Amino acid sequence: MITRIREVRRARGMTLDDVARRCDPPTTPQTIGRLETGTRTVSVGWLNRIARALGVEAQDLVQGGEAAELNVAAVLGPCGAVAPKRAAIVVPPRIDEGQVAIIVGASIGDYRSGDEIWCETLQPQDSARALNRDVLIPRPAGRFLFGRLINRDEEKLQILPLEAGGRQQVISNPPWIAVATKLVRGL
Fold first, then answer.
1. With contact defined as beta carbons under 8 Å apart, do 65 and 59 qualify?
2. Pairing verdict, β 70-71 and 89-90
3. pLDDT in tens, 63-113
4. Could you tell me what percentage of the chain is helix, strand and coil, using 3-state DSSP and rounding each to the nearest 5?
5. C-beta separation of 147 from 133 below 8 A
6. Burial call 122-157: b when 16+ CB within 10 Å, e when fewer
7. In DSSP terms, which residues pair with 70 in a beta bridge?
8. What angle do CA 57, 98, 55 make, to 5 degrees?
9. At 50, which helix (H) or strand (E)?
10. What letter would DSSP give residue 3?
11. Phi then psi for 149, rounded to 5 degrees?
12. Cα distance from N-terminal residue to C-terminal residue, the chain
């Protein structure tokens, strides 16, 4: 079976070590390298493990599958747009369980009207992973608070609103928080 593990790994900007550590259970970079080059047989189990580590579907790792991808035409840098040194692809993001989205209705902070903000839902005890990042926190009566998580003190979260001059908010014992992980913006 011909796989596209290396292409997808590079498209995600990950090293062999990154993928090996993200596998469940973790494995070695050498094993991932052997699976990429075909010196070790790739089973369905390995495809599923590696796909989860890369954040894609297993079918995205098999050539000839119904994989969703975009060919990279250019790389933009300080000297402008240049052709990639080797053929490259971009694999669209996969929707994971527990993700939620925010649609920006009016520009605020760094966000523009029409933006989609994809968020990963976390339990309150995992909120340290969201420090200094934008978060969505539910409030009573169907309301929400969205802003930068600037401090976590026991069961209290301190949120700095995005609007200029906004007052810091303190939220106690939220049922969950959602940390912004992807920004989807049309041009």
1. yes
2. antiparallel
3. 665 556 778 888 888 888 988 888 777 777 767 788 899 999 999 888 999
4. 25, 35, 40
5. no
6. bebeebeebeeebbbbeeeeeeebbbbbeebeeeeb
7. 90
8. 25
9. helix 44-54
10. B
11. -75, 110
12. 39
Tokens of 51: 């796909």
Question: CA torsion 127→132→135→139, rounded to 10°?
Answer: 70
Residues in the chain: 187
Q: What confidence score (pLDDT) does residue 13 get?
A: 83
| DSSP letter string, 92-159 | PPPPPTTEEEEE-SS-BTTB-TT-EEEEEEE-GGGGGGGTTSEEEEEEGGGEEEEEEEEEEETTEEEE
Task: Give tens-digit pLDDT for 9-37.
Answer: 888 888 999 999 999 999 999 999 999 98
